[in-house]
Amino acid sequence: MSVEQKHILIVGAGTSGSALAARLSEDQYHRVTLLDAGPDERAYGDYVLDPSLAPDAWKGAGPIAQTMMGSEHGDISVFQARMMGGMSAANGLATLRGLPVDYDGWAAADLDGWGWSDVVETFKSLESDRDFGATDLHGSDGPLSVRRWRRDEMSHAQIAFQEGMAEAGNAVVSDINDPTQLPGIGVFPVTVDQRGQRLTTSLAFLTPSVRER
Fold it and tell me: Which architecture characterizes domain 94-191 according to CATH?
């Protein structure tokens, strides 16, 4: 029995498009074409790769575009990163999850497959957590390298804010993606590689072997 090959067209190689193309191309019966309006990772400059320069992307460095979204109060300027990796090449690198109660609330509203027990394994499969490794909440073999900002990477203002919140009686936690530690104040996890450079979704998911598919 022959299996018909499917040709799938994905428009946009941003945060979701890159991951979707990588996953769908694992099936030998899928031919996947991934289109994006912007350039490949060769166009990445320091404003993308150096996390300390991330705010520069918002100033218009690189292939950045502003579009207008209408609202009842008038037009709103919307920031777009037109390059491989999309907004993962120009955002704040934060890797945060919702709370289990949120996902369980969706499941209770008849959204089957969206409960916390349904999604937590997917979260784990995405990451390689360099601080905690493989646990009930974190993965160690995923494509996204994740760790928390270190104190020597934080600004004086950030350190002062954290210490001030602690002095005010707020609990300091080691993992803000661990719901059992919340509420509390902690350093958010980010997607950076072993060299300390930004890891976009296209760099993480569209590896040479994936591109060959």
Answer: Orthogonal Bundle (1.10)
Reply yes or no on whether the pLDDT at 14 is more than 70: yes
User: Which tops the pLDDT comparison, 137 or 48?
Assistant: 137
Q: Which of 11, 61, 16 is nearest to 37 (CA)?
A: 11
- Burial class from Cβ neighbours inside 10 Å (0-12, 13-18, 19+) for residue 9 reads exposed
Token pair 């959204």 in the structure block, residue: 111
The pTM (predicted TM-score) of the whole model is 0.84
What DSSP assignment string belongs to the chain? -----EEEEEE--SHHHHHHHHHHTTSTTEEEEEE-SS--GGG--HHHH-GGGHHHHTTT-SSEEEEEEEETTEEEEEEEE-STTGGGGTS--B-----HHHHHHHHHTT-TT-SHHHHHHHHHHHEEETTT-SSSS--BSSSEEEEEPPGGGS-HHHHHHHHHHHHTTPPB-S-TT-GGG-S-B-PPEEEB-TTS-B--HHHHHS-HHHHH-
Phi, psi of 121 (to 5 degrees): -65, -30
Structure-token match 């990796």, residue found? 85
Residue ranges per structural domain of the chain: 1-91+200-213, 94-191
Look up residue 121 and give its two tokens. 């394994």
